[in-house]
Amino acid sequence: MAMAAALLLLLLAAPVIYATNHTVGGSSGWDTGVNYTAWASGQTFTVGDYLVFTYGSTHSVDQVTQTNYDNCGTSNPTKSYSGGSNTIALTTSGSMYFLCPTIGHCSQGMKLAISVVSNSGSTSPPSNSSSPSPPPPPRNSSSSSPSGATSKFCSMSHLMVGLVLGFGMMFALVV
Ligand SMILES: [Cu+2]
């Protein structure tokens, strides 16, 4: 019973999660000699997404003010990250600025400015270039059994919709 409810919540949540992991610099990672302005211009940063920094031992990551970003200033970072791999949740919309505080690295290009956009209050689907078109609305959900419903669908997204409906019906019946 509680198990079914938990599963239902999990399954209901799954289709609406469109979080994207943005690996800074792509395959180049966080390093000198990479144009992060160009990289960022090809990304859409949405609240709920994640920024992933991966780098070698000579680097680290500071979140800084716009002034420090502009001047490669390394004093008083807002937040500091280290260890070679950091995943930073983008929790609010607006601008964020990062740089590598290792001496000379910022001026060699290790600085990143991103603009995070809100995803709330919008009725249009997220423009995520890496995902296929969203699944169509489910049909015939009221009469067929979960297995009957799922057998008609072959893609994973349809399977998810079927499972959600199935567990939803089961949950409603149990309650
Ligand atoms: Cu560096």
UniProtKB/TrEMBL annotation:
InterPro entries: Cupredoxin, Phytocyanin-like, Phytocyanin_dom. It comes from the Eukaryota. The keyword Transmembrane applies. One of its GO terms (cellular component) is plasma membrane. One of its GO terms (molecular function) is metal ion binding. This is Phytocyanin domain-containing protein. Keywords: Copper, Glycoprotein, Membrane, Metal-binding, Signal, Transmembrane, Transmembrane helix. It comes from Vitis rotundifolia (Muscadine grape). Coiled coil: none annotated. The chain crosses the membrane at residues 156-174. Residues 118-131 have a biased composition (Low complexity). Residues 20-118 form the Phytocyanin domain. The keyword S-adenosyl-L-methionine does not apply.
